[in-house]
User: Fold this.
Amino acid sequence: MKKFFQYIAYLFYRMFIFGFRITPFWLLYLESDVISFLVFRVFRYRVKVVDKNLELCFPEKSKEERDEIKKKYYSYMIDLFMESLKGYTYPAEKLRKRLVYDDLSIPERLYAEGKSMIVAMGHHGNWEWTTQTVKYEHKHKFCAIFKPLKNQYISNFTVRCREQRGTHFCPIEKTRFAFGMREKQPTGFCMAGDQNAPNTKRSIWVKFFGMDTSCLPGIENYAKLFDLPVIFMEIRRVKRGYYRCYVSMIAEDPSKCEKGEITQKYMSKLEEVMRNQPETWLWTHKRWKATLNPDGSYDYGKLYENL
Assistant:
């Protein structure tokens, strides 16, 4: 019975995608304005979580300034959702005009040297469009690590849509096996590590916005395990529906980095991005579920009590 309802949801999802395919961007954004108003002003979706996160990260800003960021964020969040769905059926040549890559000398040099790399990304800008266009701009083969959706029909369909642009998508539980691809052709492994780390004992603690923050260990661990350079990809929003990607080096030789150094550099890069364009990150995410105590122990959910 569960699979039956999942399949019905999948059929509606396919109809939803088709609707986005025939909807022009100007109408898409008009719809986005209406939906963001409802989500923010009427349903108040996770408003308290957003308020708490912005208060934690920008204590130096006034309430009015944080409220302005919050307002822009809800508009961006719905834009991102609708852009991502439209991107599945939007012609690649047109999508490439909306997401432009800046200086690519670093990945080009690594490819010339026959080196694979880890592309450290964050949930900012439009990461969906990035994974759908990166293959056209880079010489590396690309593999994106992702967490499958609970609905297997929608998840499989989404992967097919994503992979039609040349990027392979690997479920997170098979990450270790995916790195075997690097032996056949220089590969860029796209990984995002800016979400809450569910296993606090295995996580890496770094400073993020001045706070002790529990981070996913994947980027650093796999970089060291397979001796892969780590680059950071910033996705900057130029204007509505247009983005520009900037690449910078985090760690050329991971073996020379101390424990936590790669993760700290990655999170510092991400913090810089968020300070420049704070409305383009997922503030509805409870990023600081785990908090570190002076004695080395940690609490879970303390910052979000009663939210």
About this structure: The chain has one domain: 2-304. Residues 63-87 form the longest helix (25 residues). The mean pLDDT is 93.
